[in-house]
Amino acid sequence: MFYLTSKRTRSAGEHFALALQRTHRGTLIGERTAGANHFGGIEPIGAGLAAFIPVGRTYDPDTGKDWEGVGIVPDIEVPADEALAKALTLAGA
C-alpha cells in the first residue's frame, strides 16, 4: 500500500500514516506531514473569543515522542505534486 502525504496531512491522517509506517503495512510517499498531533476541542472563553484546548496526544511507539510541530517523515520524500506519479511508478503502473 502507498499512502501519499503532504504538509497538509494532519491529525487522523498522521495517526494513520504512522500506523502504516511502524507496522510495515504501507509506504509513505510525499512530504513531511503537518505535525498536528494534539487533539482536543474549541471552547468559548468569553468576549467572543475561543481557545483550542488539547486533551490528548499520541506517541510514536518506537521513539516515545510525539510529532506535534515536527511531522512524520515519509519513507520516500518527494514534493506532494509528484507523490502520485512516484507511487504509480513503484506499483509498476
Task: Give an account of the 3D structure.
There is one protein chain. The protein has a single domain, classed as 2-enoyl-CoA Hydratase, Chain A, domain 1. 25% of the residues lie in helices and 28% in strands. The chain contains two helices and five strands, in the order E-H-E-E-E-E-H. A hairpin with a 2-residue loop joins strand 3 and strand 4 (49-56). The mean pLDDT is 94.
Which CATH class? Alpha Beta
If you compute it from the alpha carbons, what radius of gyration comes out, rounded to the nearest whole angstrom? 16 Å
Count of helical regions: 2
CATH architecture annotation name: Alpha-Beta Complex
Estimate what percentage of residues fall within beta strands: 25-35%
Q: CATH superfamily, please?
A: 2-enoyl-CoA Hydratase, Chain A, domain 1
What spatial order of strands do you see in the largest sheet?
1-2-5
The largest sheet is:
3 strands, parallel
Helix content: 10-25%
List segments where confidence is low: pLDDT < 50 over at least 5 consecutive residues.
Answer: none
Give the total of beta strands.
5
Q: What is the mean pLDDT?
A: 94
CATH fold name: 2-enoyl-CoA Hydratase, Chain A, domain 1
Could you say how many structural domains there are in total?
1
Termini Cα gap: 14 Å
Give the helix/strand class: alpha/beta
Order of SSEs, N→C? EHEEEEH
Shape: elongated
Short description:
The chain is of the alpha/beta class. It has helices spanning 12-22, 80-91, and strands at residues 2-5, 27-30, 39-46, 49-56, 76-77.
Write the layout of secondary structure elements.
Layout: E1 2-5, H1 12-22, E2 27-30, E3 39-46, E4 49-56, E5 76-77, H2 80-91
